[in-house]
TrEMBL record:
Its EC number is 1.13.11.63. It is a multi-pass membrane protein. This is Probable beta-carotene 15,15'-dioxygenase. GO terms for molecular function: beta-carotene 15,15'-dioxygenase activity; carotenoid dioxygenase activity; iron ion binding. It is found in: Cell membrane. Catalyzes the cleavage of beta-carotene at its central double bond (15,15') to yield two molecules of all-trans-retinal. The keyword Iron applies. NCBIfam families: blh_monoox. Residues 1-22 are annotated as: Disordered.
């Protein structure tokens, strides 16, 4: 019997003996599976969004950020406390606060010093982080067709690359517009800002990104199917492939700003909220008992202070940029710079949680 088949049989026996974890099952269902179905259901809308003014996308992004996006990282200060047994509340808050101050400040400084390089770095970091979030969600679902770290890293590359790379291929004009808005906050000359982002949007770059994403997707899905042939769960693999297909369609069809706004709130943000509920014993017990509202209320209470703090960061960036904020595009750009500043320390906290839960360990299940 193959390694994968042996692991699958062992897991099935354990499930039969101990029963499914109701909290993990509920989190997977409410924070990953149902939202993925909802996104798939929105595909007809996605097809017409390129006809909308870009301001509609900006409003959608702002709403998604208000509802879920900003809050999903606002419990980072409690993650070490809840995911480890040897970390006090004071130490948890202190370490995370210092990380946010130092790393977030470094990101803002990078935008002032080299805005184009900082923009490209933000895209790469978001690619990593959104893939990181999806792999963690797959481990919560306990899929068994990604048993090795290499296969999970490949899944990360595909899952994170879809929202970051596919819009560059399908909708370069709006993607470029957002880049110019961001760079334009720090380069007052509009012509200079436009020229600065040229290398990112040349046909050769777009062709390379499209070819890479197509190949990576094919290899990832193909390797998963090999695991199925060796005994892994076909249902889990079909769900994984279906989600990848839905994301490909979403980002090929939808206007980029609109697409990211919906994805941030409905997909990435919710999956991370679900993961944080599982490391909070009281919230996990509530959702396991069917009290989804109670679990969300507890999360909302914990996230409220630093969610407000996130919006204060947006305001601080808006007040400090040389070009000022005079249009909806400027507001979006300021929000993205502030989000970039918060993303780097957030990625560090999530990477620590990944390590703690064994997400990248062969056979690890989060």
């Amino acid at each position: 019997m193959t390694e994968t088949a042996t692991r699958s049989a062992t897991r099935r026996r354990a499930t039969a003996d101990e029963g499914d974890d109701p909290a993990r099952s509920a989190v997977d269902r409410w924070f990953a599976f149902y939202p993925a179905l909802a996104l798939a259901g929105l595909l007809p809308l996605a097809a017409v969004t390129p006809l909308f003014p870009v301001e509609v996308g900006v409003a959608t992004f702002a709403l998604g950020t208000l509802v879920v996006g900003m809050a999903h990282g606002a419990v980072d200060h409690l993650v070490p406390l809840r995911a480890a047994t040897d970390v006090s509340l004071r130490r948890s808050v202190a370490v995370v606060s210092v990380a946010y101050a130092i790393l977030g400040g470094a990101v803002v400084a990078a935008f002032f010093l080299a805005p184009v390089a900082a923009f490209v770095g933000f895209i790469a970091l978001t690619w990593l982080h959104w893939g990181q979030g999806d792999v963690a969600a797959l481990t919560v679902a306990d899929v068994d067709h990604l048993p090795t770290a290499a296969e999970r890293w490949l899944s990360l590359v595909v899952r994170g690359g879809l929202p970051m790379g596919v819009p560059l291929v399908a909708h370069p004009e709006e993607y470029r517009l957002v880049a110019e808005w961001i760079v334009g906050l720090f380069v007052v000359d509009a012509a200079a800002a436009a020229a600065a982002v040229d290398p990112v949007f040349v046909p050769e770059t777009r062709l390379a990104v499209g070819a890479f994403m197509t190949a990576a997707t094919a290899v990832s899905v193909g390797l998963g199917y090999r695991r199925v042939r060796a005994g892994a769960s076909r249902r889990d693999w079909l769900r994984d492939a279906g989600e990848v297909g839905a994301l490909w369609a979403w980002f090929l069809l939808a206007a980029p700003v609109f697409a990211i706004g919906v994805y941030f709130a409905l997909w990435h943000g919710l999956r991370h909220v679900g993961r944080l509920i599982l490391v909070d014993d009281r919230a996990a017990a509530a959702v396991g008992d069917g009290d989804l509202h109670g679990a969300l209320a507890r999360f909302g209470r914990d996230a409220a202070p630093l969610t407000l703090g996130g919006f204060l960061v947006v305001a601080a960036v808006g007040l400090s940029v040389p070009a000022g904020v005079a249009a909806p595009g400027d507001l979006l750009a300021v929000s993205l710079v502030a989000i970039a500043a918060m993303t780097l320390p957030h990625v560090v906290v999530v990477a620590w949680l990944d390590r703690r839960q064994g997400v990248w360990r062969p056979g690890g299940t989060g």
